[in-house]
Q: What sequence folds into this?
């Protein structure tokens, strides 16, 4: 586009300069290219007045010397101002450039921030959902972690199903011809026994695992809390209420509630049977009782009887069961007998009470 | 040989002023060369004394050096009026000085020039005795005797202005003497540059840079002894000689040095001042020294021992100390803004330039770093230059050749006329290129004693004195004719019928297609003109075109022997003061873009206006000036006005139209760029006119433009790329490096079209036409010698 035969001018370099100027004009405000050069160019011409002109006659010079001094100082001051203005202008120019850079950065950062915020929200939602899911899972896990534990525990510590069934035969005569409700039926040994004996029986247990086990055996079992279940039953609707090794798991107020509800639901003449570890056997009461971490405290047999009588059951008797084998003590002497009772006495007891035949 | 006169207000052996000591040297040395010299001066003693008092006796005295002094008494001046004017001058605000604009009104200027050293006796003597002297040298440029005396003997007057850029230089009386003087003698290239800026290119052909001699003292043993007692021992140092004052920038230099030492604490470089005046040096103990006034031997020892001389002053017309340093082979640093010193440094490369304090500080560092070899080489360049410029022998040689030799640029080909040679053309106008050329030819031929008239069909009143109305039979059959053909006319058949020698001068006919849309009649005339050209071919023995482009067209139309005679553009046509009001307006700080040319479609002013609109995006404070003959009712002109209004830049365009020569000179003087979009030119005179005013030229490459521009061309080949074109124009206005390169070559190109180059070609043509009995020879003496 440019053509010159001037040997000193490089057209390629000139064209590049031209392109630079076009680019600058398009990115900077109008008049920007020119502004800086005008500042300061005017004042330079005033320097002529810094001295007394040589042509001025000698006698006039003193007259103008002071004026000259003032002019000089004024000019100097103006020049300084101009210089300051120039440097200020330059600084402003740099600031403007920096400003636009910063604004661009800020815009980019804002865009990025918006992006991040959106993603964060999404993630939070996902996390919330996840947490809810996790929480549910945790609850479930927690709730049923014990179930499995207890099954395993009982299998280890309580004894086998066969053993339990054998021991529980002793109660069969008490419940003949009556419908039985077994609270905390566990592995369902008593219910099985009753079925074999041709008795109608149903059970409840809070553990889903226990319920599943019982149902496997075809037993009529529901998963429910014992007291909640009792409360759901109408008055005098059950012939027999049994609870094997449940009361030691309950705090005192709940034990009372259990007994109260039991009495309510029993038909007149109905029976309540509760078996629990006998703490009069010291080994049981001070040691083995604590093998089950879910035991609260031993229920003293005398206290159990007292409680049943308090809630209105009559003819309350205590049965002592499961003596320990291998006692070294001689039962003939009272001291030995005492020792025997303490260390090898019955390990369980049951308290049996009846609802009065007529309402009292 | 008649004596030479030097006219100077004060003169005396022991006077200390710059011009006075120089005048003493010139008078002595010219006398030594056996010239008779008489100094015409006043009875005033010195410029410190009252210039209305005659301290010295009137009359003639003879000095031992061999010249005489003639003193004239002065009269008392009108003190109150003069003092008032002086006060006003001195109180002018800075920046009030503008080239072409007088700082005083006419009455005050007249008072100033009349009352400042009033010697009517001297003026009367000049008037009465002009014939008794060979030539007069007036110096300096100011004071009554010079301002009023020079015009009285202008034909023999040489001016040695000792010019500074100061208020008085802008007075119209000063401008007048620069134009009236026969020749001008300058002390330095820088001073010459300044004068051209102030007074225009008309002074260029008659200017001579004689230089000023600097006495060289021989080396003596005393120098070594002097060196030994310098307080800075053997440490390298920068020297600053001369009076220390604010105006000489001594303080600025000291501050720059202080800043340099702060950032270079381990440097051993010292700064040494020597000369009158004082300068506070606190904080630079052991680093900067002020030796005060020193004897010559010590000064020479300082010059020899310094690494470089720094001359930071901006108020020099010729720096003696700079020359002294160069004579000793030491490099020099000068101030970028001082034309006299900076031009010298640029010219010879004997040093460096610096502007503000930062640049001087950097210069300290680079001088310290430079090797001794580099410094010596730089100094050697200065030495060569100084030996040429500041050597008294060479200086006096130049004086002699200027005053007594054939320095004239006028050609003096002696022609013995056998017949008359007349010019014939349809109309002679005022101001257009063809008419100017025709008038110049007439002047040149008449100066040679050839009978030559201009015959036209239409006369413009302003040039009526130079031409005659053409009537059949007005030209003798034996006379020769120079027929200028630019457009068809009824003259053609008469010219064809002329039996005598005929030469066709072809100025090019605009191709008709440019006028089709707007001026169908003119288009038709153009077509006719081209057709006529074909018809003319067999009838002309000689044909010339003002450019090779034109000659090419001539050859195509059947003129087998066509040759080129370029137009003559001589700067002395601008020996006139500028238009002050216009000068004031044009120096308001805006960028001035100029185009000179008639407002006709092929010059494409509409393209220029459109592109100017784009240029304004780069440089909002710009004005486009359109100068050239126009007709306000013309369709194209109205179109241009409408276009400017549509683009909403009507206030940025000066539709100046026809202007006076002074106004044209003013437009050229203050233009920053000459921009042509023309698509058809036979020569394009304004391109060269712009070059005389150092205005960079940017032109669309078409027709004869590349040929006229030659190596000075900056052209573009396409108008499509508006962005790049506007940016290029912006660069040409604002990039000082690019401008300098372009102007340097333009200054060479413009000399191809001066009278001294074109006149011989014209006269050779004339010789060929009016007979073989003519002889040509270059004159050895100036015809202007009395």
A:
């Amino acid at each position: 586009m440019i053509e010159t035969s001037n040997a000193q001018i490089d057209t390629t370099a000139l064209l590049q300069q031209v392109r630079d100027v076009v680019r600058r004009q398009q990115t900077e405000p109008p008049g920007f290219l020119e502004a800086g050069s005008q500042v300061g160019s005017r004042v330079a011409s005033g320097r002529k007045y810094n001295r007394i002109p040589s042509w001025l006659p000698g006698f006039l010079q003193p007259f103008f010397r002071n004026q000259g001094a003032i002019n000089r100082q004024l000019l100097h001051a103006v020049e300084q101002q101009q210089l300051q203005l120039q440097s200020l202008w330059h600084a402003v120019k740099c600031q403007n450039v920096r400003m636009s850079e910063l604004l661009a950065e800020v815009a980019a950062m804002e865009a990025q921030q918006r992006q991040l915020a959106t993603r964060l929200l999404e993630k939070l939602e996902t996390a919330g959902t996840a947490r809810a899911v996790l929480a549910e899972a945790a609850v479930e896990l927690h709730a049923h972690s014990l179930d499995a534990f207890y099954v395993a525990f009982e299998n280890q510590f309580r004894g086998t199903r066969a053993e339990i069934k054998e021991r529980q035969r002793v109660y069969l005569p008490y419940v003949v011809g009556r419908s039985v409700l077994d609270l905390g039926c566990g592995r369902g040994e008593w219910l099985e026994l009753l079925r074999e004996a041709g008795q109608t029986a149903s059970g409840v247990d809070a553990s889903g695992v226990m319920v599943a086990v019982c149902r496997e055996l075809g037993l009529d079992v529901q998963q429910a809390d014992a007291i909640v279940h009792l409360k759901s039953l109408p008055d005098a609707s059950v012939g027999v209420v049994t609870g094997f090794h449940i009361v030691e798991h309950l705090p005192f107020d709940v034990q009372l509630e259990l007994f109260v509800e039991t009495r309510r639901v029993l038909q007149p003449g109905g029976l309540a049977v509760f078996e629990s570890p006998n703490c009069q056997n010291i080994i049981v009461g001070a040691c083995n009782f604590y093998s089950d971490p879910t035991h609260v405290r031993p229920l003293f047999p005398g206290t159990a009887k007292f409680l049943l009588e308090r809630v209105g059951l009559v003819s309350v008797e205590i049965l002592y069961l499961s003596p320990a084998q291998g006692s070294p003590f001689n039962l003939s002497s009272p001291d030995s007998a005492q020792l025997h009772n303490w260390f090898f006495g019955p390990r369980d007891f049951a308290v049996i009470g009846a609802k009065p035949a007529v309402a009292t | 040989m008649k004596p030479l006169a030097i006219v100077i207000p004060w003169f005396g052996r022991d006077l200390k002023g710059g011009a006075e000591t120089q005048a003493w040297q010139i008078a002595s040395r010219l006398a030594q060369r056996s010239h008779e010299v008489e100094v015409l001066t006043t009875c005033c003693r010195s410029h410190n004394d009252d210039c209305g008092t005659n301290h010295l006796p009137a009359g003639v005295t003879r000095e031992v050096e061999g010249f005489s002094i003639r003193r004239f008494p002065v009269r008392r001046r009108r003190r109150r009026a003069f003092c008032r004017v002086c006060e006003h001058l001195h109180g002018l605000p800075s920046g009030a000085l503008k080239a072409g604009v007088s700082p005083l009104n006419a009455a005050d200027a007249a008072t100033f020039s009349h009352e400042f050293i009033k010697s009517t006796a001297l003026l009367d003597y000049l008037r009465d005795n002009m014939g008794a002297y060979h030539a007069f040298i007036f110096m300096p440029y100011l004071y009554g005797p010079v301002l009023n005396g020079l015009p009285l003997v202008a034909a023999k007057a040489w001016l040695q202005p000792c010019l500074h850029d100061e208020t008085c230089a802008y007075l119209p009386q000063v401008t007048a003497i620069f134009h009236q003087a026969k020749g001008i003698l300058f002390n330095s290239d820088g001073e010459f540059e300044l004068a051209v800026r102030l007074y225009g290119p008309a002074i260029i052909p008659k200017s001579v840079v004689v230089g000023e001699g600097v006495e060289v003292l021989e080396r003596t043993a005393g120098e070594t002894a002097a060196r030994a007692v310098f307080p800075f021992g053997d440490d390298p140092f920068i020297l600053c000689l001369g009076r220390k004052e604010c105006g000489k920038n001594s303080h600025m230099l000291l501050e720059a040095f202080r800043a340099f030492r702060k950032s270079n604490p381990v440097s051993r470089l010292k700064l040494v001042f020597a000369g009158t005046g004082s300068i506070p040096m606190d904080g630079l103990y052991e680093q900067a020294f002020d030796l005060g006034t020193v004897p010559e031997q010590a000064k020479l020892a300082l010059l020899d021992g310094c690494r470089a001389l720094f001359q930071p002053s901006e108020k020099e017309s010729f720096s003696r100390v700079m020359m002294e340093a160069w004579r000793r082979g030491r490099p020099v640093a000068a101030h970028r803004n001082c034309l006299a010193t900076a031009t010298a440094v640029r010219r010879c490369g004997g040093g460096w330039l610096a502007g503000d304090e930062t640049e001087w500080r950097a210069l300290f560092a680079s001088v310290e770093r430079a090797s001794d070899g580099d410094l010596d080489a730089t100094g050697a360049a200065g030495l060569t230059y100084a030996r040429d410029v500041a050597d008294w022998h060479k200086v006096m040689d130049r004086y002699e050749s200027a005053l007594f030799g054939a320095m004239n640029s006028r050609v003096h080909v002696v022609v013995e006329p056998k017949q008359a040679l007349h010019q014939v053309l349809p109309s002679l106008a005022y101001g257009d290129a063809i008419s100017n050329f025709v008038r110049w030819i007439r002047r040149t031929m008449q100066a040679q004693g050839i009978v030559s008239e201009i015959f036209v069909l239409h006369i413009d009143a302003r040039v009526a004195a130079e031409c005659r109305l053409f009537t059949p039979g007005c030209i003798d059959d034996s006379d020769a004719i120079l027929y200028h053909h630019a457009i068809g006319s009824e003259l053609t058949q008469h010219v064809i019928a002329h039996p005598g020698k005929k030469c066709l001068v072809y100025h090019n006919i605009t191709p008709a297609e440019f006028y089709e849309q707007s001026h169908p009649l003119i288009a038709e005339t153009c077509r006719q003109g081209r057709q006529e050209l074909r018809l003319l071919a067999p009838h002309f023995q000689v044909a010339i075109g003002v450019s090779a482009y034109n000659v090419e067209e001539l050859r195509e139309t059947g003129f087998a022997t066509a040759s080129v005679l370029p137009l003559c553009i001589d700067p002395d046509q601008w020996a006139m003061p500028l238009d002050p009001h216009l000068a004031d307006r044009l120096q308001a700080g805006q960028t001035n873009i100029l185009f000179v040319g008639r407002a006709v479609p092929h010059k494409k002013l509409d393209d220029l206006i459109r592109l100017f609109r784009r240029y304004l995006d780069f440089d909002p404070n710009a004005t486009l000036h359109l100068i050239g003959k126009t007709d306000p009712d013309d369709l194209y002109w109205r179109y241009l006005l409408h276009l400017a209004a549509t683009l909403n830049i009507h206030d940025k365009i000066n539709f100046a139209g026809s202007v006076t020569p002074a106004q044209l000179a003013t437009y050229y003087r203050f233009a920053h760029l000459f921009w042509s979009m023309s698509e058809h030119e036979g020569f394009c005179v304004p391109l060269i006119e712009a070059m005389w005013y150092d205005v960079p030229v940017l032109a669309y490459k078409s027709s004869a433009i590349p040929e006229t521009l030659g190596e000075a061309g900056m052209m573009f080949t396409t108008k499509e790329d508006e962005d790049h074109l506007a940016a290029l124009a912006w660069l040409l206005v604002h990039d000082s490096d690019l401008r300098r390169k372009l102007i340097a070559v333009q200054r060479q190109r413009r000399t191809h079209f001066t009278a001294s180059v074109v006149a011989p070609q014209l006269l050779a043509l004339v010789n060929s036409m009016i007979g073989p009995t003519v002889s040509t020879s270059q004159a050895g003496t100036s015809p202007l010698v009395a």
Q: What stands out?
A: Residues 4-209 of chain B form a domain with the Rossmann fold fold (CATH 3.40.50). Residues 633 and 639 of chain B are 10 Å apart (CA to CA). Residues 773-786 of chain B have pLDDT under 50 and may be disordered. Chain B has four domains: 4-209, 221-390, 421-564, 571-753.
